[in-house]
Amino acid sequence: MNGEEGPEHWNERGRALHAAGRTAEAESAYRKAAMLATHWSVPLYNLGLMYKELGRWEESLKANLEAAERCEDDQATWWNVGIAATALADWRTARHAWSRAGLPIAPGDDEPRADFGLIPVRLDPAGRSEVVWATRIDPARAILENVPLPDSGFGWGDTVLHDGAPNGYRTLNGRDVPVFDGLARLERGRFVTFSVDLGEVGCSVAALLDAADALGGAGEDWGASVRVLCRACSEGHPAGAAHSHASAAAAVGIAARDAAHFEEILRRARAFDAGARG
Questions:
Q1: What is the CA radius of gyration of the chain?
Q2: How many CA within 13 A on the CB side of residue 257?
Q3: Which of 40, 41, 46, 120 lies 20 to 30 angstroms, CA to CA, from 237?
Q4: pLDDT single digits (tens) 56-71
């Protein structure tokens, strides 16, 4: 597979065009490489990877399945098949892909839902890159457990699709847990995020958090839980950083069903504080 105009040339041209954002030309280059080398899976894998980054799930699934036909034992290809199939709720294909990737998931037509524990997920990796904790419910989906910052575009209880390659680490109960980049929101939760200025509402942080939990919402002390990290630490291991990072402004995030529910939480929080003082 050598030669200036051979398949390797067209595959590398596809990579360069993809990096430059010239998607249509990259597609043509990858297809040219795949046509010239009919047993080589890499151009089709790269094509499926590009479609995954663009959120073009049907095309990503098709390209990765074509790549898998050429290299049946490539775990990374099957993982991307599973991600695309999950985005499309094609559970039979997703289950098959996870099995081929080496995961103990049985065949079937229903979603492979279980509790795979807590993982950190990076929301909007190309933007603010906020990292939150989430409960992983299958190899590519997780439900947000933290209350994200309002400008993240995400909310508590959202179900997100995430990538399979670790991109940094966080510490949970003394062990390193890989961070996975979020790819898309698959299902919006039932909650809206309200930002509370402690100086304006007359409530303590503890009362707000307790009230939110008691009334079926959620609270997050952003002043204690949010740090602004440099990119190197966010995508590495902030616990081992040789420099410090700023904390967020003192505010509390409240996840409530609507404005009326939020006001109910505030009233309960004030009652909690009044009772503590009384």
A1: 23
A2: 6
A3: 46
A4: 999 999 999 999 999 9
